[in-house]
Design goal:
By secondary structure, the chain is mainly α. It has one domain. The protein has helices at residues 3-89, 91-112. The radius of gyration is 43 Å and the shape is rod-shaped. The termini are far apart. The mean pLDDT is 86.
Length: 113
């Protein structure tokens, strides 16, 4: 066999190997793309469920917070109304308590100076 024939034969083998490698790479790329699409398709519904759960939890937390705020406001107003009722029923006792509190605060402030 001559050098020229060896060169042509090697070139043909190289072309054949190149085509086989390209075909294998193309097949592998298609398989990877298909696997990626399958993974994305299976993840979508799971993310939808997660998003729905997060929204429900946030809504529930907001409602609970609103209910606690309303209960706190109600308790504060009841306490104020109770104190106001006590002061109206016992004006002299309330006046004495206020005077005593004022004296105590004044004496504490005076000691700091």
């Amino acid at each position: 066999m001559s050098t020229q024939e060896n060169s042509v034969d090697s070139s043909a083998k190289l072309n054949s190997v190149s085509k086989d490698t390209a075909a294998a790479a193309h097949t592998m790329t298609e398989k990877l793309a298909s696997a990626a699409h399958d993974a994305i398709d299976s993840t979508g519904p799971k993310l939808d469920k997660l998003e729905q759960k997060v929204r429900e939890t946030a809504s529930s937390a907001g409602k609970t917070l609103h209910d606690k705020k309303e209960a706190s406001n109600k308790a504060i107003h009841e306490g104020i109304d109770s104190a106001r009722g006590f002061a109206q029923r016992n004006p002299f006792l309330t006046l004495g308590a206020a005077f005593t509190a004022g004296v105590l605060v004044a004496s504490l402030i005076g000691k700091k100076k």
